[in-house]
Amino acid sequence: MDWSIYTDALVEGVELLASGAADIWIIIETSFRVSGAATLVALGLGVPLGVLLGTRRFAGRRLALIAANTGMGLPPVAVGLVVAMGLSRRGPFGELGLLYTNNAMVIAQVLIALPLVVAFTAASVAAVPRQLRLQARSLGASRFRELVLVVGEARMGVAAAVAAGFGAIISEVGAVQMVGGNIAGDTRVMTTAIVQFTRMGRYGQALGLALMLLGMIAIVNAVLVIGQTSAERYEGRR
Predict the structure, then answer these.
(1) What residues contact residue 30 under an 8 Å CB cut-off, 6+ apart?
(2) Which of 51, 41, 227 is nearest to 124 (CA)?
(3) d(Cα 84, Cα 61) in Å, to the nearest integer?
């Protein structure tokens, strides 16, 4: 068995990243910018929705939870199809001219990450003991302060929502290729570039980007874990 295809590609990929080739780093920067923006938007929308579903009882709550949990398994290509149709010339938002732009990719990624953020947040918030909220109310805490306290107690679940959302969208290929078009120097991201380089037999470039993709996901998760453990140590000293 000849494993040289892997070793040669690994060496070439590392050398390519170390060389600072502009086209490769533009791809990496575009990936991080698009997925980072989508993650922030998904958090801004998903965390409040998750807190609402996890702390309130209202008509339609169960249906909303089912929708959020179902959305966690939503096929990215289906999201890409719906967004591409909506932004196409014949679509309801075609006049905006967003198809094959970074903004179109952000929209698709937000739709992929949002159910994950909502479901993880709702589950973690719902697990916070109700007695804690009742105690906060008895001490005169405002509704906003009560919710802040609940989110603080559920921070590990919220951190998991961040990791799940970011990991799902930065490693996704179908939707971003459908709505972004994989345009060199503009909408080409790491996942679409990996697919293209592999088809061209340029394994070194593909593997170099794959390593960078894994590294970015690992760094985000490491930061979240360090933040969680630091908070635990702080609370242990109190």
Answers:
(1) 102, 186, 187, 188, 189
(2) 51
(3) 30
| CA–CA separation, 203 and 4 (whole Å) | 12
- Are 124 and 91 in contact by the 8 Å Cβ rule? The answer is no
Phi/psi for 73 (5° steps) reads -105, 15
The DSSP secondary-structure symbol of 94 reads: G
Q: Which residue in this structure is represented by tokens 């993650």?
A: 39
The single residue listed with the structure tokens 């001490």 is: 139
How many angstroms separate the CA atoms of 62 and 118, rounded? 13
Give 11-52 pLDDT, tens digit per residue.
988 888 888 777 888 999 999 999 999 999 999 999 999 988
Closest CA to 144 of 135, 157, 133: 133
Residue 194 scores a pLDDT above 60: yes
Q: Hey, what amino acid is at 171?
A: S
The answer to whether 110 touches 202, Cβ cutoff 8 Å, is: no
* Residue type at 193 in one-letter notation: A
Residues comprising the chain, all counted:
238
User: Residue 19's closest CA among 228, 223, 204, 151?
Assistant: 204
121 touches 161 (CB < 8 A)? yes
CATH architecture of 4-228: Orthogonal Bundle (1.10)
Assigned token pair, 177: 């290729």
Report pLDDT digits (tens) over 58-93: 888 899 999 998 988 889 999 999 999 999 999 999
What is the per-residue pLDDT for 40? 94
Q: Which tens digit of pLDDT belongs to each residue from 100-141?
A: 999 999 999 999 999 999 999 998 888 877 777 777 777 777
Domain edges within the chain: 4-228
